[in-house]
Design a protein that fits this description.
Radius of gyration: 21 Å
Order of helices and strands: HHHHHHHEEHHHHHHHHHHHHH
Number of strands: 2
Number of helices: 20
Strand content: under 5%
Largest sheet: 2 strands, antiparallel
Helix content: over 70%
Distance between the termini: 51 Å
Shape: globular
Strand order of the largest sheet: 1-2
Mean pLDDT: 77
Low-confidence stretches: none
């Protein structure tokens, strides 16, 4: 059997998965995602907008971290950003523009603005239902499905799905993008880069969750700041063109050509898919990261994780979009994925551009590889206490899927990611729609304490024990 043919963009495997994705995303997920985001925005009275100042303040909050082994609010924020900030920000945005046109960026913004309320709800619930383990906390959707919804079967299903999604499908996307960037910039063969990634990821993954949190809290702010600074410089160099960039985005988002040509739905779907892949609001994955923080009130981490959606999509994804649209190279039909971003920078800052993107995507995507593994480890521990399964997931994550991503086509790894992303999102959205009244009640309790002059609100379990979904 021709393995190269199976893993290619036009192979039967990619054709089959793409067909399922078209049905899943066109008729179900886009509508459900938007409906849930609007529901949570209304129920929380726009928490993502009215409490943004509190979100920023909480990043430096350390009032509850009472044990040196526990993960701080900022470190949990960094783990979730490590997973969010990756190929979705550089390659995913480029793919959205290449497939859906500039108007797809508008829908990325919309899903971030509304979806941050979804992130708040799922992360608050994850904090509420977390469990203490040796030296740290653990939690996420599987836990609030088990202890909140009282549905063990759904909890186990989600745990399996998220482990497969992040430790297999998403890892292959990160690896594929790194290898593509390195080949474009330095001529390194994908299989060589794949072997190097296997070595680096294995060293980090076998260090455990706390080591990943420490690495992420250093890595992520540095790489994000450097990338944003580069984007600011490029935008400043082309400041006169910025109004025309916004005009292109909005015209394409609501343009007559898109409606007449029947491409509006594809554009909207592409923007929302790539936005969700980037910011993860609704998947439940960031809720896993939220659960490990040691904070005095569940709402604190819910607010911090809502802020991470803004950081990811409205800041870093927008930087990539502006770079690509300012360069004009997005009109080249032969460019897609990370190569589109690299060529955009090549036209703006010269030969240093592709090299810079290659190094940036290595840091962005590599942090996502180790961040993604965190979610898998949490859910494997939920499913079983047998360490053999944890070792199996580490091998699949750090070796098998890293190499698969290095050798497979761009279209195949993204199709695989979209399929698994859709499955875990539907499962998680059902749970948080059922449980969201509790998150809203916790938010009211937090605001009430703040208004009473309590600087650091605390959660009192007895007030919520009688609540049932």
């Amino acid at each position: 059997m021709n393995m190269a043919g199976i893993f290619s963009a036009d192979g039967w495997l990619n054709t089959f998965i793409s067909g399922i994705n078209n049905i899943l995303w066109t008729y179900i997920l886009v509508a459900v995602l938007i409906a849930c985001a609007i529901l949570f925005t209304i129920k929380t009275r726009g928490v993502q907008f009215r409490m943004i100042g509190e979100m920023i303040r909480l990043l430096g909050d350390s009032t509850k971290k009472t044990h040196e082994k526990h993960v701080s609010s900022f470190e949990a924020f960094a783990v979730s950003i490590a997973s969010r900030v990756g190929t979705g920000n550089l390659a995913g945005v480029a793919t959205a523009i290449a497939v859906g046109g500039p108007g797809a960026i508008f829908w990325m913004w919309i899903i971030a603005l509304l979806g941050s309320a979804t992130a708040f709800v799922e992360s608050t619930l994850a904090q509420l239902y977390k469990r203490k383990t040796t030296g740290s906390y653990i939690g996420g959707p599987a836990y609030y499905m088990m202890y909140g919804l009282k549905k063990p079967w759904m909890a186990r299903l989600y745990a399996v799905l998220i482990t497969a999604t992040f430790c297999m499908a998403y890892i292959s996307i990160q690896s594929n993008t790194i290898c593509g960037a390195m080949q474009e910039a330095f001529g390194i063969e994908p299989w060589v880069m794949g072997l190097l990634l296997v070595l680096f990821s294995t060293l980090c993954i076998f260090g455990g969750i706390n080591r990943i949190a420490k690495i992420s809290s250093i890595f992520v702010p540095v790489m994000a700041v450097l990338y944003v600074l580069l984007a600011v410089v490029i935008i400043a160099m082309n400041i006169r063109l910025l109004p025309s960039v916004f005009k292109i985005i909005f015209e394409n988002a609501f343009g007559f050509q898109q409606f007449a040509g029947g491409t509006f739905g594809a554009m909207m779907m592409t923007g929302i898919k790539r936005g969700l892949f980037s910011n993860e609001a609704g998947e439940g994955s960031a809720a896993c990261a939220a659960s490990i923080a040691d904070v005095s009130h569940p709402v604190k981490q819910g607010l911090v994780q809502a802020l991470s959606v803004f950081t990811d999509t409205l800041l870093i994804c927008s930087c990539t979009a502006f770079i690509i649209l300012l360069s004009g190279v997005y009109t080249n039909p032969d460019l897609n994925g990370i190569q589109l971003t690299q060529n955009a920078l090549l036209s703006e800052v010269g030969k240093v551009g592709p090299a810079f993107v290659a190094l940036a995507i290595f840091m962005f995507a590599f942090s996502s590889i180790i961040g993604n593994y965190t979610y898998g480890e949490m859910n494997v521990k939920f499913l079983t206490k047998k360490r053999g399964w944890l070792f199996f997931v580490r091998v699949m994550n750090g070796i098998v899927m890293v190499m698969f991503g290095a050798l497979a086509s761009l279209d195949l790894v993204w199709s695989l990611g979209d399929l698994f992303m859709g499955c875990i999102t539907l499962c998680n959205l059902y749970a948080i729609v059922r449980l969201h009244p509790l998150a809203v009640s916790l938010l009211k309790d937090y605001v009430k304490q703040k208004r009473a002059g309590i600087k650091s609100p605390e959660y009192h379990n007895e007030e919520f024990e009688a609540w049932k979904p």
